[in-house]
């Protein structure tokens, strides 16, 4: 049982739920739910993102095994609960599930899934060690995840592809904050993250105004703002490792509310509610399994 829990800890289940929210938001933006003939493609893309995200998170711990032995020895690999070889095989299995599910739908989704795998491995192996490239690379993974959902309707992907820059900016800002999780944060970096957060909120609101769904969007964007800025302000006042960790955790889980805001901005309130219902699940899982 302890080994099973170790593998589940490697996956960071609370984070995986947020990846599903990304894809559902992309599908909502595409307009697929307005005239959905079948929900089978939705299921395939959700399975795909689960596999891709879990694979990326697992390989993060594989590549960080040496560093974690010093900074986070309680994690499954450095604690000896899971071997590097077993974790690698586990990660390959999930990547295969993710790419295979996307390929089962259509070639475009398969291509995006492959790009996500490459972006994850690039970040885990090299980019994370760079101040600018690392956050941008991590943000790219989430931006591509939104595009994976959008790929359910090819013309929609062609039209709305640039919206992927919003989750890219948002995740880049969280990655900037996370640099202080072990030794404490830098207030300058926290200021930059706050500006990026504000940019994300303003962008979603601008889209909602363009789509004439601003009031529906506000139902989800206001809780999102409260969830991310509260811990960030606390971390700014006292930039301890503990407060930084709480800000990062809140930022990751709040992705669910950001994705609900996307569905609201495009007038798909039913999907927005479904996405919001993922929030208590993610919060519950975060009590047992680490988010960062």
UniProtKB/TrEMBL annotation:
The chain crosses the membrane at residues 12-33, 39-59, 80-102, 108-124, 136-154, 160-177, 189-209, 215-238, 250-279. Its main location: membrane. GO terms for cellular component: membrane. It is found in: Membrane. Keywords: Cell membrane, Membrane, Transmembrane, Transmembrane helix. It comes from the Bacteria. One of its GO terms (molecular function) is transferase activity, transferring alkyl or aryl (other than methyl) groups. Gene3D superfamilies: UbiA prenyltransferase. Pfam families: UbiA. The keyword Translocase does not apply. It is a multi-pass membrane protein. This is MFS transporter. It comes from Pedobacter quisquiliarum.
């Amino acid at each position: 049982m302890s080994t099973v829990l170790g593998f589940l800890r490697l996956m960071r289940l609370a984070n995986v739920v947020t990846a599903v929210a990304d894809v559902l938001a992309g599908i909502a933006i595409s307009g697929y739910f307005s005239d959905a003939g079948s929900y089978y493609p939705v299921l395939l893309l959700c399975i795909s993102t689960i596999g891709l995200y879990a694979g990326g998170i697992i390989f993060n711990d594989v590549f960080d095994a040496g560093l974690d032995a010093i900074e986070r020895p309680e994690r499954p690999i450095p604690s000896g609960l899971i071997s590097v070889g077993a974790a690698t095989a586990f990660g390959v299995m999930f990547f295969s599930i993710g790419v295979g599910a996307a390929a089962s739908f259509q070639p475009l989704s398969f291509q995006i899934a492959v790009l996500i795998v490459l972006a994850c491995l690039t970040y885990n192996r090299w980019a994370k060690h760079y101040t600018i490239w690392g956050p941008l690379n991590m943000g790219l993974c989430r931006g591509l995840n939104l595009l994976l959902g959008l790929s359910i309707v090819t013309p929609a992907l062609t039209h709305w592809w640039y919206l992927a820059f919003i989750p890219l900016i948002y995740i880049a800002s969280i990655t900037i904050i996370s640099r202080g999780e072990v030794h404490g944060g830098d207030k300058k970096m926290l200021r930059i993250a706050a500006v990026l957060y504000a940019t994300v909120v303003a962008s979603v609101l601008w889209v909602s105004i363009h789509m004439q769904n601003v009031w529906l969007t506000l139902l989800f964007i206001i809780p999102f703002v409260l969830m991310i800025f509260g811990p960030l302000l606390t971390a700014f006042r006292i930039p301890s490792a503990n407060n930084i960790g709480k800000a990062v955790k809140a930022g990751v889980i709040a992705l669910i509310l950001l994705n609900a805001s996307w569905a609201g901005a495009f007038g798909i309130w039913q999907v927005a509610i479904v996405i919001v219902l993922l929030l208590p699940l993610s919060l519950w899982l975060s009590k047992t399994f680490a988010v960062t």
